[in-house]
From TrEMBL:
Keywords: Membrane, Transmembrane, Transmembrane helix. The lineage of its organism: Eukaryota, Fungi, Dikarya, Basidiomycota, Agaricomycotina. Residues 18-63 form the DUF6533 domain. This is DUF6533 domain-containing protein. Pfam families: DUF6533. It comes from Coprinellus micaceus. The chain crosses the membrane at residues 15-32, 52-73, 85-107, 119-143, 168-192, 213-232. Coiled coil: none annotated. It comes from the Eukaryota. InterPro entries: DUF6533.
Amino acid sequence: MYSRKFEAQLFASQYTNYFAVACLTILIADYLQTLDLEIALIWPTRWNLVKVMYFANRYLPLAFLPVIIFYNVAPGPLSPEACKVLYTVPCMGIAFCLLISEVILYIRVYALSGKTRVMVMFLVLHGGAVILTSLVLFAYYLVLGKFAPSPYPELSGCFGVSSGNSKYVVACFALVLYSGLVTMSLCIWCGLKTYWISKHSRLVKIFYRDGTFYFVMLVVLSLANGLVALLAPAKYRFMLAIPQEVMHNVITSRMILHLREHARTSMGFTSLSSDGRIDFDHVFSTGCTVDVANLRSERTTDKETDVSYNPIQRV
């Protein structure tokens, strides 16, 4: 009865694991490549919202991806209840990681906009609606999932028998894509206003250039994942879910590290303060705003090397 479905599931699990192992390799390589920056730029700073989000975004996927890999190769026999727990916990973890990355991107848009009250209200209401709806839909998908004893436990210990619930996951992907389009548009709009006023500020160039590039990449990934989930055969439907989350993780982590690195070098913060902290916590860690008046009045030929030139100030 279940032989054909089991064969399709086994095939999908095999290819999903290929992507999962590749993504775990990318995560580890990225972690090792940027660990020195994290130690220098993140660890000594004060705890705040962005630092908490950074560490959650950085380390949670490293904990959940191995569990997903184990689920796909777990030897049997396993009880249906054990399989559901083994499947649900890492899936919710990966979903949380993806949404944490979205929150970090919202914080970047908030900083680039100048921290206006209108923008913060919009981002809180819009982001809250997107995140809450996505979590509810994904949780509902997981609750509806059902498992049965594996007909071939020597090949796979878990066997999912639920069907027809993938529409909830597709809806989540659509919400992430919509959120990415909104944040990308806001980033470009706010960035253009700042960029044309402060063309000579290297820090603002980094803030705008990297942000726009990252947003465009994330939208392309979300679009590809949504199209595959919507149009591909069932066994291929969710193969890009893990790569999308991992690229969100890598891009948002590097975005924070690059901004802090350029803030340290461009604004003269090259050493630790007396209490052992790096004294540039005002840049992106608590949010930053662009002082347009300063940018207009301080356009000098040596502003890129003048330590006193600070186009981004704490509010």
